[in-house]
Amino acid sequence: xxxxxTPSEVRALVVKHIxxxxxxxxxxRLRDLGSEKALVRDYSGRVVxxxxxxxxxxxxxxxxxxxxxxxxxxxxxxxxxxGLPVTAFDRPEREGVKPSDLHxxxxxxxxxxxxxxxxxxxxxxxxxxxxxxxxVRICSxxxxxxxxxxxxxHPDDLKPADEVEWTSTEVASFYGPEWLEETPxxxxxxxxxxxxxxxVPPNKAEVITSTIRYLESLPQAFLERRARFRDGRLIILFxxxxxxxxxVRVHLSPDLAAGHADKTDIPMPGRIKEATGLDLEKAEVRVxxxxxxxxxxxxxxxxxxxxxxxxxxGVHIHADFYLNNSRRSVVxxxxxxxxxxxxxxGGWNGWLLQK
Length: 355
Known about the structure:
Blueprint: H1 7-22, H2 26-42, H3 47-56, E1 62-69, E2 75-81, E3 91-93, E4 96-98, H4 101-105, E5 135-141, E6 147-153, E7 156-157, E8 170-171, E9 178-180, E10 193-200, H5 202-217, E11 234-239, E12 245-250, E13 260-267, H6 270-276, E14 282-289, E15 300-303, E16 305-310, E17 315-319, H7 345-354
Parallel strand pairs: 1-11, 15-17
Antiparallel strand pairs: 1-2, 2-10, 3-4, 5-6, 5-10, 6-9, 7-8, 11-12, 13-14, 14-17, 15-16
């Protein structure tokens, strides 16, 4: 998938996109606006997880998660990485066309990622940003090193084309993105892509800062299996705005990391692939011992990133679970390990846990 050579190439695509959206019928406008509002509700409170997940799928050496507080209790959330830039052009593939990152940002239910190569691949988690702020900026670099960016508002305002009639100009965020061609004032050395929630209100700030502190406190060993970093040099910088920063180093090894108690791989049945959408040949299950002084309510289930569901076993349990939409929890169904597993996400999750 080709990176844009200059910002003007990206801008031309954005101008074309806005013109196309203004020609859509009223039914499409209402459908997309309603769908985005529903996604924002489903992913409320998960913005730090979703943006960190996206950064993990792209980073080479460095990820930044930073909260910048304001005097009124609100603030700004920054999440950036030094890896793959935002792509602007679709890539032909054997079975069709793989959409660009720009296309995924400016549409719903479209993703450039598969379960084989990324933590998240549904193409909807990014909408979680709008549960914390009405405005978000996405900035990235082109081949010539210059920044370009977009600002998305939820909901947005866009006038229809002259020959189209809408009852309202209120549209989904991706209908009328605002073009930004400037170096972000919050840009940091070495980063290639940055996402900024500019105006998080005070009533949303506590969820963000507490999530950052929660992630700081957990072991990060389950991140080691991500495809893009294989040499143990990834650093995640967490900053909750209190003046304390923590660098978490993700150590990689072909063997089990220190503290892992066990690991196994389980073949993925074809009908479970169809039922869950997890396009994997095999599922991985790992456990990590909790600290000796750790409490049972401090160990959780993971699917690369932590859920908020306690394992209750004294160990962190990681697997290729099928998670609920919010990714807060794992839905389990009891399964007899002597019988064939049922074709359901809950059955698959229960099978993994029994293994």
